[in-house]
Amino acid sequence: MNSLDICIVEDERFQREMLGDFLAKEGHRIAEAERGEEALELLAQGSFDLLLIDYRIPGMNGIEVLREAKRLNPEIDAVIITAYGTIETAVAAMKAGAADYITKPVDLDELTILIARIADRRRLIRENQMLRHELKAKGVSSDTIRHRSRKMTELINLAGRIAPSLATVLIRGETGTGKELFARLIHSLSPRADRPIITVNCAAIPETLLESELFGHEKGAFTGAVQRRIGKFEQADGGTLFLDEIGELSMPVQAKLLRFLQEREFQRVGGDRTLKADVRILSATHQDLELRVKEGSFREDLFYRINVVTMHIPPLRERREDIPVLLDHFLQRFARENRKPMEGMSREARDLLLKYDYPGNVRELENIMERAVVVSRGSVISLEDLPFPQVECEEQGGAEGEGGLLREALESLERRMIRDSLEAAGYNQSQAARQLGLSERMLRYKIKKYGLK
Ligand SMILES: Nc1ncnc2c1ncn2[C@@H]1O[C@H](COP(=O)(O)OP(=O)(O)OP(=O)(O)O)[C@@H](O)[C@H]1O
Ligand SMILES: [Mg+2]
């Protein structure tokens, strides 16, 4: 599946044929050239994924071939084969745009791993490009989910692959990680995109009303049901129903949802007519549903039904590469929305935002940036525009003399108290925070600040 078109450029016949045979056996398509000029002719004619070039070949050297090849096809990957120990060659190769280098004698296991990695990366890029194309054709901006991390790229590609099917998808992740965005992305990539996506937040609707909200009710079904009402399943007919916080469903509603997933049928509350709806179910939760199943408060059969595909959206702290992209995105967005021309942020502010842990994930980052844009006095966000407690300390920190001494004394007292109560609580942070009258987040911040633990 991951086979590549590879061109081997090597003048020593034995070496060339050995590599060619080996890579062909691994499932790749191979072309061979003795000299750089010959390789470039091949490149001009066909499309290749990877060039495997011996650095020392007659005529043009490997790096020159690489440069010229990149000019012909900027997407091509190249690996330079160098004699053992010539680090300068390796550096020059990387500078010229080689994906990697490998030393002679070529270790075939190492070569296999290296090529697998290149193939994997090319696949990822290709999938992403195709998806972008598709999104564009559907008029959806693929930029709604800002990302740079590999984890997110993989998830977006997965969304693209599963979108066309009817498979249920359970989207998991901490609060504010973007679960709802993914649900919308899957819907907008699906053949149902021109039909509605209906969202029900199962945690926001009182348990007693949820059943009728989802399935509708007949007139007189219960006190207050003065009229017949269409439920969300009927509204979503032909489209997608997104059940947010699905862990909150009561047992009776779980049973009804299960029946729908098995038979595509349901009844309105207080009704005896069996209705059908063509609805794709997506759901999200931040709960440990496996635990809920074990405890007996979530049906195991339903768990498997809603969970044909699982998507785990990682918390922001596990994909820190996304933070700078998100900071810039929200800065621009809130500048536009507030009609406030923003140039950026101070170095200290940026450093702090890049280091912060974001327990509330992207939503917290979004809120921080919105507030910062709104409160900032000028066109540059500074430390004092950020809602972090250290801002005050640092502001006072500028003052010399008594203020500084007092602060030092207070800080050393604070440090000692925190250390003592952490020890007393057996390093249980929640317990220590309670004892100190601090929020856990504040405690975490102070632990970091004082380098405790
Ligand atoms: N990668 C991203 N790019 C741009 N905006 C994002 C991204 N991820 C999340 N957001 C924004 O962050 C906020 C939270 O996202 P979303 O509501 O999808 O998260 P959630 O996981 O459903 O949160 P909750 O668990 O609290 O319901 C939204 O305003 C969303 O637009
Ligand atoms: Mg949500």
Describe the overall structure.
The protein has 453 residues and is of the alpha/beta class. The protein has 4 domains: 5-123, Response regulator (Rossmann fold); 143-312, P-loop containing nucleotide triphosphate hydrolases (Rossmann fold, 3-Layer(aba) Sandwich); 317-388, Orthogonal Bundle (Helicase, Ruva Protein, domain 3); 399-449, Arc Repressor Mutant, subunit A. It contains 19 helices and 14 strands. It has a 5-stranded parallel beta sheet, sandwiched between helices. A 5-stranded parallel beta sheet has the order 7-8-11-6-12. The protein has a two-stranded antiparallel sheet with strand order 9-10. Helix 6 (150-162) packs across helix 7 (179-189) and helix 13 (322-337) crosses helix 15 (361-375). The longest helix has 30 residues, at 108-137. It is globular and about 90 Å long. 30% of the residues are buried. Mean pLDDT is 88; it is low at 391-403. Magnesium ion (MG) is lined by residues 179-180, 244.
